[in-house]
Structure formats: structure tokens, C-alpha cells
Amino acid sequence: MFATTPPPTSSAAPESAFAYFRWLHDLMPEPFFQTQPFLMFFAAVAAGYWLIPRRWNTARVWWLVVASFHFYAAWSAGLAFLVAATTLADFTLARLMAAATRPRVRKALMLTSIGMNLGVLCYFKYQNFFLESLHGLLAGGGYPAAFDPLDIIIPFGISFYTFEAISYAVDVYRGKVKAERSLPHFLLFILFFPHLVAGPIVRAGDFLRQTRRVKRWNWVRVQVGLQLFLLGVFKKLAIADRMAVFTDGTGLQPGPLVAPELHNTSAIWLAVLAFSIRIYADFSGYSDMAVGLAHLFGFKLARNFNLPYLATNVAEFWHRWHISLSTWLRDYLFIPLGGSRGGKWATARNLMLTMTLGGLWHGAAWGYVIWGVLHGLFLIAHRAFRDWCEPRPGVRAALESPLGTAWRVGFTFLCVSLAWVFFRPDIAGSWEILNRLFIPHGGLSLPLHNRSLWYTVLFLLACHVMVARGWWQKAWDAASPAALGAALAVCLTAAMLLAPQTGRTFIYFTF
Amino acid sequence: MTALDAPRVAIEPRVKSVAVVVAPVAATPEVKTRASRSRRTVLLALALVVLANATLGVLGEYSPRLKDPAYGDKWAMFRRQLAARPGDKLVLSLGSSRTLLGFHGAHAENALGGGVVAFNFGTPAAGPVTELVYLRRLLDRGVMPDLLLVEVMPGLCADGPAGPAEQLTLTGERLCRSEVETVERYGFDPAAVRPAWRESAYLPWSKLRFQLLGRVVPSWMPWNLRFDWSRGADAHGWATPPRQEITPAERAEREANARTEYAGSLANVSPDGRPFTALRALLGDCQQRGIPTRMVLYPEGSSFRAMYPAGTGERFVAAARQLGDEFAAPLTDARDWLADDDMYDGHHMFKSGAQKFTSRLTTDVIAPALRRAP
Question: Is the CB of residue A478 less than 8 Å away from at least one CB of chain B?
Fold first, then answer.
């Protein structure tokens, strides 16, 4: 609406051979929810959806499937066909799995589905990373060779829908869900545009049940959807993109996280703080928009965030941050590896493996791997500390006191924020940031006066306390429709007003 | 239980299969009340958003100060000056940052010995089109100068294939509807100006956000987005750099920046270009209303003068003189009035330069013109 300057994309879309898709691309070049073209697309899709009589539920589902395909094809038609093709293959493999009676055949079909999805993921996302790492190793061993990165465009959201497809294959194999018989319903499960490019990662058991329900227009649901959407828009434009000015710069001056070597120590600390706020507001804002949009079609997606920066330890943080991913990793990686059933060392190994692979899932670069390793170490350390506290009631009482709780929240936030330093592909930059964080350096200050950063911190702190204490919900429930309507209007207006000059792509779109 | 969970049965009646449509559970009074409350909330929110945007859009259309604070701040200062000294003669200077830093109104008033209000209405990057827009705004508000000084800056009179350079700063959201047509007539790209104006009219809280925030919380934005360029000026609209001395290295760097900025456009200066047509329209307006007008080509340092391609400066001056003859608005070529040290980048003056330039301009141009004015 609001982002009049389109955010720069992380990867340019390939040009389509078909005039229709080129036209579509011109209409909606990027799949960003906060842009005018998307809102027009959404309005048209929603109007069509609700105008289809509800007795034609399958027609409604097809309508959403076609719309979702167009949503993706507007960015890249070729990759939209790829996603549709792998989804069809997953559907067929699951049907075959349901029809097969021999366990070995079922297992082979499941592994085929997983292999296909991981193969596509590795080809698009990790090929360059693996090749580059191999070349690095060879060069380190005295066999230098020239490396030209392959010109591969990573499909938006590939990590998200790959995980959805894998969980579906595993659940069908385990008998937790039945293989879907309706093609449009299954296509919608994977392609549904609100969650297609950056989650939340939906489970077949939750979503397919909803596709079969007949949706009726409901004002309560519309209000909830609109509230969530506007909240997401506010988080994205007024907070995340604004914080990006402190991390990435203004255009007149590069930011401390883009050019750390130019900035002084306090600027780097403030930029790390700004990045922690930015990534939370950016991703939870996107998730709120996605959940809100789904509500406007009568679908309920999983909650993805629950005040993660109020977590009192890193384990709790992962129960509150990107919940759909952390539960996925728990159910399809950590528990199959043995979970916490095999003693301390086995648990530590499983945690480390899970978090390292979780880090790699985020991005094909060593920085993300280090970020995952750090979180694995934090989780192991937390378990060890918890076990150490167990027989010491005095220590436990001190930690659980209000002061102790505040200290734990602060310490967890510090650990998480320092780990974010590695959440980037440029690992040399991460070391430079760490160096300047802990060894005083001179240099440039922040590219913008830090007053708005501190106001944002205070605002977020107040909001977190209000929500955690239940005051927010109480006030919301007690408010009159006039007050609520005014609050929503103010939220949208504030988002428009506070948006910076250039929109930024969603950080998680690149994963 | 959240508001959403409670009526779930009514929202999504569960069905066994796609083919079976179960009739919804009958809505209870409580569910109906909640739905009615939600409907009112949603509709009111949408109505308020539309109303807020419509209100600001209309206000912006009638108040250039809201859309164009660079103009608005100057206008506020100017009005104060006029109100404080009714009946005094008015010398008004229009132009770019050269004018803003170069025409020292208070100094001119002192030199003229009272009875004159000399006001500097210079704003950064204001070429002939901006001058024309601003002049018409002032005339619409009843301003009738006894002498109008119009800066002619060759760099801003260039007309390349992309149109006048000033369209990069006089963007669509700074204009009201009628002005959009004016600037398009003088080469502004309609594909850029129209959408920007439209957005400022229909979604002003988004499009005018820098203008609005620049009023309230300027520190939240980089300086180039604050629209507060006219705020640091004195009561006569004149501004001067915070530093009045500069090292040779700094001067060389700034002159190089000026070269980067203007060397290309000076090659495109043409008396037939659209900015020149805008200048012609401006002079025509003044002649029609009987406003005594003088064109001024501001001082330039040796490094800046060296940037002109061979013959360009002379052709420009000749064309401007011809235009001046046509509209009884003679050109004063002041390019060599100051030494290089009086400017920090070859064309923007320090305070000392502004005083020297204003003194001579007052003696050579303003005083004779005022004597001649009716």
C-alpha cells in the first residue's frame, strides 16, 4: 500500500517465455503482502472466492489453487510449474503408498518422495554451497581450482513447502494421516498462497481437514483476519523496515551490519539490538499477515510466534520462535534421531545435529551453520545448567524470583542476539562484527539518530508486557466496536506513516 | 478462549466428506451479537482509513505547505516579513540553492536604507519550472513584488531526453493537481509525476509521510528526506553553510562533486529546451501583471566556469539576454563577480561571498530597478 517503492528481491526472477506470464509479472513482480499489487490481487481473489456458492466447495478450492499458482507464477512461471509438478508427484506417491500393502514398498515410496523433495531443495539451494565448499577444501589441500558459481535462482519458499511435503509423506507412511484423495485439496495444502513462500509450515493433518469444511462468511473471522493482517503490516513497515535503516543503512551511509569495519563499537551494539528487533518484527509480521489472510478465506494456520524475546532460556525461546519449524524439527528430526531418550551424550548429539541442520535449512552458507551450532550449544548448556540447578532449591528460587526471571530473560535475549550475528551469508563480516562488539573501536556512528531505535525498544517492551500480563486481551475484549475500529485504522495509518523510503524484502523469503 | 475460538462451530461446521454439506449450527444470540460487533468494527476501521486519507488528501490539495514544506516554510517566513512591514516595497528573489545561499536580504535592505522588504525565496534545485510553480502560488495568494529577481542557472536549464533535471526534486507529491499539468507541459515525465501526485491525493498518509514526519520527528529520518531545507534560513529566507572556512582539499573534493553533478547537464543546455520555455512563461506572467523583473546569472568560480563546453556559456547568455529583451527583464551576468574563495564548491557562496554579491547586486540592479519602478 504502503510500500510504494518495491522492496529489492534477493534473487531476480527469470523471465518467462510466455507473454501471459510476463504480463502477470509486470502486474505483481514480487510476492510481498504489503504491496499495492498484492492487495489488488487479494481483493479480486477474495471476492471471487466468496461469490462462489458455498455448496460448490470444490470450485472454491480450485479457485484458490489457481489463484495461488498465479501468485507464484507472477514472480516466476517456470518455478511455479516446478512447485506444481513436485506437488503432483507427492500426491501420486502418497496415493500409491496408501494403495501398497507391502511395508517395503511403502517405505520405498516414502523415501522416493523425501528424496525427490530433498533433491530439488539441494539442487536449487545447496548446490553452489556444496561446490564452493568443495573447492575451498581442495584449495586448502593445495589443489586450487577456479570456481564459478552456477547461475541458479532459488525458488521463493522452497524450504517451507519442501518441509510440508516431507512431513506429509512421513505422516502418510506412519499412518498419522490418510493419503489425500482429492487433488485440488492437496494442491491447496502445498500451494495456498498465504503460507506458500514463508510459512507457517502447515501440517497435512491440520490443513486438509479444513479444506473439506464448507466456509461461511463470518464477521468475527474477518475481524480477526484483518487485525492480524494489519498487525503484520505494522510490524513489517513501521518496525522491521525502520530497524533495517539502523542495520543496513540509509543510502547516504551504509549500516553497521553492512560495513562493520567503518563503525564504532557502540554503533555495532545498537545495530545488533536493531537486528534482533528487525528479524522478529519482519518474520512474525509476515506470519501474522499470512495467518490473517488465511482467516479471510476461512482457514486457520498455526501460530508461529509467541513473544519469543520473553523466553527465560533458549529451550523456551525455541518453543516461542518459529514454532512451526521448531515443532517440525522436533517431530521429524530430533525424535527420529532418538530425542532425549538415550542419555545425556546422545541427547546432546541429537540436539546438535538438529540445530545444525536447522541452521543449514535457513541458508546455504557457513554463517547459518554456525548459527545453528551456537543454538545447539546453548540448548546443551541449558540442559546441563538445569540439571545442575535441580538439587539446589536456593538457586532455583533465586532464578525464579522476579529479579532472577528478568535476568534470565535478559541473558537469553543477549545470547540469541549474539547468535544473530552469524545469521548471514558473509561470515567474514560476522567475525568483524564480533571483533568490534568486544574490542572497543572508533569509527562512524549509526546512520540515523538512535532516538527512534530507543522509542521502538520501549514500545515493544510495553507491548510485550501488556500481552504477557493479559492486559492487552482484556482491553481488547472490553473495547467498543468504535474504539476497536479506530485502533485498527490508527494501526494501518501508523504503518503507512512510519514506513521508510525503501521497502525491504522479507528476510525469511530467501530461505 | 479467544474471540475466534468461541464461535468456531458456527464458522466451520465439520463435515464428513466433500460431498456432504452440513447445515450450519443455528446462530445463538451471543454469536449474532459478536458478529454484529465485528462487522461494525471492520466497517468502521475501513471507513476511518478512507476518511483519514480523504481528509489529508483534500488538505494537501489546498495547502501546498503540507505537501511541499520547502515552499511552506519559506512562505511562512515571507508572510511574517510582509505582516511586520506593511507598505514597504518588496524585492523577491526566486531561485535555487545558489540564491538561497547567495542573496542576503537583510544586507540588501541595509544597503537600500529602509522602506524595502528583500526576501530570498530560493530553494534547493529550483530551476525555471519550480520558479514558475512557486511564482504562480505566490501570485495566487496576492503577492505583488515591486521587483522580482529570477535566477537563471544554466545547469537547471538543460533539457536532456529524460526531461528537466529538476523533476528529480520537484516530485509529483509536492504538487497540487493543476500544477501537475503545468510541469508536464515543461517536460516532466507524466509516468512519474502523475502516479506520485495520485498517491499523494489518495494515500497521503503513505506518500506524504516524509513531509509529515519531517515536521514532527525529523531525527527519525535521514536529512535528505526531511523536507526541511528551508528551515535553517534567517528571517529573510537566506541561509549559509555552518562552516565558513574550508581546506583546499575539501574545496577540491566539493568542486569535483559539483563537476559530477553538472558537467553532463551543461552539455545539454539549449535555448530551445523546455526549461527555457518555462522561463519564458514565467517572464510572460510577470509582464502581464506588470511586475518589474530582472534575471540574474549567479557567480561561478573558475572551476565551474571551466566546465562549460566551448561556446555553451556564451550561447546561453545570448539566449537569456534575448529573452530578457523580449519581456523587459534584462539579464545580469554575475558569473565573474566573486573570487573562488568566496564559494565553497565553485558556485555556492559563503557568508562573505553572499554579502559581497548582494552589495553589488543592490547597487547595480536592485536600486536602479526600484527607482524606475512605479
Answer: no
